[in-house]
Write a structure and sequence with these properties.
The chain is built from 6 helices and 6 strands; from the N terminus they run βαβαβαβββααα. With 195 residues, the chain is of the alpha/beta class.
Amino acid sequence: MLHHIHYLDKKSAAFLSEALVKHFSHQPAYTEIVVVCIGTNRYPGDSLGPMVGSRLFERLEGSRYVHIYGTLDKPVHALNMQRTLAYIANRHRRAYIIAVDACLGQFYKIGTLQLVDEPLQPGASLSKELSSIGHIHIKGIINNHGPLNHKVLEHTSLTFVNEMAAVISRIIVKSSQEIIPRLLSIKHAESHVSS
């Protein structure tokens, strides 16, 4: 299922965080949340994920229940994605995974945030075949899809991307605050598996 709303809509954070929490409530039990923010700090248009990751790291650092991968200092991108996903699969076996990425779309959809109830296919707009990520994902449409997608990513407003990142980070913080009390304790999860 796809939920979408423009990032400037005052209801955007509440609307998408409610949809995210609803999706979580239909899933099997998890013990933690992992947020994987995809992108690079080399192009403004592809920095949405790392900007979200850096904001979340500031807000949620020290939380034993929420783990952030992909920041401006340590981005997760095509070159290190397989290694990062293998590490997450090994270290966070019972995690509810939320993926975040920028994407290109039709001109009239620029600024739209999409919450999609399925794994993210990163690199799709650049015709890259990369591993799918997450139980659910959030995409921000940052610019127009066209024949010169690499150039579009280079010439996207950094201010615009930063504003979208602020809204996405609010969505994830808000939904995490609601999800954390519903997470299974690790001891309970281990006894659940052994029984």
